Amino acid sequence: MAGLIKREDIDEVRSRTDIKAVVDGYVTLKSAGIGSFKGLCPFHDERSPSFHVRPQVGTYHCFGCGESGDVISFVQKMDHGTFSETVEKLAARLGYELHYEDGGTGPRREDVGKRQRLLDAHKVAAEFFREQLVTPGAAAARGFLAERGFDPAAAEHFGVGYAPQGWDSLLKHLTGRGFTRDELAQTGMFSTGQDASRFYDRFRGRLIWPIRDLTGAVIGFGARKLYEDDQGPKYLNTPETPLYKKSQVLYGIDLAKRSIAKDRQLVVVEGYTDVMACHLAGITTAVATCGTAFGTDHIKIARRLLSDDGTGGEVIFTFDGDAAGQKAALRAFEEDQRFNAQTFVAVDPNGMDPCDIRQQKGDAAVAELIRSRRPLFEFAIRSTLAKFDLNTVEGRISALRAAAPVVAEIRDSAMRPAYARELAGWLGSEVDDVLRAVNAAAKRQRESRDPNSQHNQHNQRSQHGQETARDRSTHTPPAEDPAHQAFTRPDPNDPAARMERQALEVVLQQPGLLDAGQWERFKAARFTVPAYVAVHNAVRAAGEVPGSAAAWVEQVRQELPDALRGFVSELAVTPIPARDADALALYCRDILNRLFELQVTHLKAEKLGQLQRLDPNADPALFQQLNRELMELEMQRRALREMQ
User: How far apart are CA 566 and CA 63, in angstroms?
Assistant: First the structure.
């Protein structure tokens, strides 16, 4: 029987892996103070960064949606793998050899590596296709590239390859490398005939582009036909597989991600050769969708890389100048409302795409296409007006009716009236008339989207009858996230609660700054807020602090129920307000001394109350003892105050 991954190996992989380096492959992180980084959360859509990573403690936490954990849970959630697959993937990244043991109830080895096996098969296939490009049989593929201005160096840079015309060339190669038919059936690289026993290459006699994810792993392929007798579509992509989801894939994202983050620019083109042309022309922020429109999941990827928080950045769509291209641009206009970044359209007046432009006019012309971009709002409005004869009164009225809803869709309330004035100028109409039309269109849009609007309520009543009292009584508010029901979140305005929280942040993030005396005092401290009491108890139960801060946080997390583990991660990544190491040490010392002073003050109040209740004549020895203790406590309090 296959065994479990040994616990000590899991801990070793966790502590050795740089969580920031891993998260950087998915999210653009910026400094958020000493030892802390933040970016847009990859787990929910947001406009201001609330996702924090603290490499020193190996932990991440989103203050927006509450997602938190360590590097293993992050990769597991992002890549949708099992725990075992994720540990093995991270171990491979480190070059660390895992060991297994029999028995237990943890993740079993037979579950480990299924995703990795698929990734390995794609990697081997990509190498095979690339090697085939230089063979005599790939002359047509090389000719296709050369005609479009792509030399061998360009093909190598993008990993372009060739699929031989045979029915089983790739199949033989992969089975020869130890992959089983069951494994290969999940890759999308093979097809099955009417006779289920017939299993053959999906890509045959085609130019091949490897499609990679953000981390650079090959997850699928795009293939362009080269021969007239090929009865298949012009472009053929990998179908949906456990690895490849076309709505979540952007070709070239692995090559473009750093430029996108650095330049705060994303250029969306239509094809593989357009991406190649843009990158070779110096536009290294270009990506392309793979057989689908630019949609919601693509936007999430783009916004994370752009750090789309309203402080700049731009998204540029390039489309053909034909009707299909204009339709695609209008679809992009609808999706634009999800961006804070400014959105533009770059369309060549002759209807050429970036690949054609580079081929005919050179690299500078491609760069000029991007520089000559127009605001997407303007393009959408002008495209709408182009459908009407503006030389007639009827045409202008119809154009206003069609364009007013487009202007009304503009999310930015400051830009909407500005474009209404532009529309008035293009139509030769009064600004007030256009504003009235835009406002009316906006009202209709709000009513159509709001099920509680009077308009919709009237329609619902007319169609379904009046809602009964019994119906209303059954309505219940949405349930709160169970993860947040486990404890009452402390009042942030309570000074004592704030002090307890800050002390826990220090102990979790900087355990090495505490000396033996401070540890003794901290463990003896009495916390008052239930959530903090639980974490304090976990710190006490976690035992000796290990050499790694990340291992320390994990020890504390393991002492708590699942519902509170995320709270520990939150405490572990909350930025500490310190500019440098000296300021950090001073802050931590002051916070702990203030906590200890507060503890002494509480203890002093208890002793004073006991003294006041005591009859000194009934027990003079105890009376004197309490007075001595009060004096000692006051001396401790003053000493702690002087140290702050």
Answer: 10
pLDDT at 339 over 80: no
Q: How is residue 516 written in tokens? A: 């033996």
Strand-strand pairing, 68-70 and 59-62: antiparallel
Fold classified for 4-112: DNA Primase; Chain A (3.90.580)
Q: Say if CB 357 and CB 276 are below 8 A apart.
A: no
Tell me which CATH homologous superfamily contains domain 115-244: DNA primase, catalytic core, N-terminal domain (3.90.980.10)
* CA-based radius of gyration for the chain: 32
CA distance 504 to 508: 6
| Residue 372 in tokens | 């000559």
Place of tokens 């970036």: 354
**221 closest CA partner among 202, 205, 234:** 202
Q: Domain ranges in the chain?
A: 4-112, 115-244, 250-272+279-382, 387-457, 495-643
476's CB contacts (< 8 A; 6+ apart) are: none
Predicted confidence (pLDDT) per residue in 96-131, tens digit? 888 887 654 444 445 446 888 999 999 999 999 999
Mean pLDDT (the chain) is 83
- Please answer whether residues 574 and 32 qualify as being in contact, where contact means their C-beta atoms are separated by less than 8 angstroms: no
Domain 495-643 has CATH 1.10.760: no
Which CATH number does 250-272+279-382 carry?
Answer: 3.40.1360.10
Joined together, the tokens standing for residue 357 give: 């432009």
At 187-246, the pLDDT tens digits run 999 999 877 778 999 999 999 999 999 888 999 999 999 999 999 999 999 999 999 999
